[in-house]
Structure formats: structure tokens, C-alpha cells
Write a structure and sequence with these properties.
The protein is mainly beta. The N and C termini lie far apart (about 45 Å). The chain has 1 helix and 6 strands; from the N terminus they run E-E-E-E-H-E-E.
Length: about 170
């Protein structure tokens, strides 16, 4: 059975904490709070309702990007699978709701953001990481041309950043 998927708007209750597994995979712990605010019709004031606190976990490049981009107090839009984490400490069993994050981004409702695309050849800032040698990848790597072909219908004018001509 598939885990339930959740998409919501929440806030970070602390900065993301980035760590690396022994096999050098990045993992970020992202504490989130989702709350419901209601307008009190009598006082015309906003009131906080119930709050759901969830520990979110992101992996690999998403973890590194989130740790570099997000900080405490930011409003974010997040999607992931809900699950229950269980553990035992001092003979006591504990459980908590957790979120395996698939996508997370700053909410632009009350903020702006500048997006920088990470090139596929970059290692996302992971110290000491190296790309596998060409022979280890199992297939030869094809190089991409730096300029699109002259007859490419989707090519854009580099000076303007767009094309005036439709691609058909």
C-alpha cells in the first residue's frame, strides 16, 4: 500500500540540518509546522488554530539545495509522503509523524526568490565528492553542444532571452 501523499503550506521551525551518511549521501532534517488560522467574525482578528508539527526529511541533491536555500521562519510549499517513525529509548516506545519530502520551495505569497539552476555536472556543494570516471558509468557520456543548432525551432535570441517567432 502506498504511503499517503501530502501537499501543504507550512513554516520552518528551525534551520534545516544537513548531514551525510557513511556512504556520502546528503540528508537534511527539516522541522515544519502546519497551522490553521481562522478569522474570528466577532473580533475581525486572525486566530491560530490547531498546529501539526512534522519532521521532514529530504535526501541527496534536494537535501543540499534545501539546506542552502531555506531558513527558520520561512513559509514553504512542501509535498511528500507521510509516515510514522518508531523507536525505543530507555524501554519506552516512541512514535512521531514524519514527512519524506519529495519537493519543497519557498512560498512566494509574501516573499520573492531568485532561482539558480544547478548544472547536472555540479556536485551540489558536497565536499570531496567526485563524479565517476567515464568507464565506471557503464556508458559513454555524450557532450552537449554549447549552442543550439541554427535550425532549432525552440532556440531563443540570446540578447532578448526569448524569440519573437513561434516555433511552428
Amino acid at each position: 500500500m502506498a504511503l499517503p501523499t501530502m501537499t501543504g503550506v507550512g513554516r520552518l521551525t528551525n534551520d534545516p540540518e544537513l548531514r551525510f551518511t557513511p556512504s556520502s549521501k546528503a540528508v537534511a532534517s527539516i522541522p515544519l509546522a502546519f497551522n490553521s488560522r481562522r478569522l474570528n467574525q466577532q473580533t475581525q482578528q486572525w486566530e491560530d488554530g490547531d498546529v501539526l508539527y512534522v519532521r521532514g526529511t529530504a535526501w541527496e541533491r534536494l537535501a543540499e539545495n534545501a539546506a542552502e536555500t531555506l531558513e527558520r521562519g520561512m513559509e514553504v510549499i512542501v509535498t511528500g509522503e507521510l509516515r510514522t517513525e518508531s523507536w525505543e529509548k530507555d524501554g519506552q516506545k516512541h512514535e512521531r509523524t514524519a514527512l519524506l519530502i519529495r519537493s519543497i520551495a519557498p512560498s512566494l505569497a509574501f516573499a520573492t526568490a531568485k532561482v539558480t539552476k544547478v548544472a547536472s555536472g555540479q556536485n551540489g556543494g558536497q565536499p570531496g565528492a567526485q563524479r565517476p570516471a567515464q568507464g565506471q558509468q557503464g556508458r559513454a557520456q555524450q557532450s552537449r553542444p554549447s549552442q543550439p543548432p541554427a535550425d532549432d525551432p525552440w532556440a531563443v535570441d540570446a540578447a532578448k532571452g526569448y524569440s519573437d517567432e513561434p516555433p511552428f
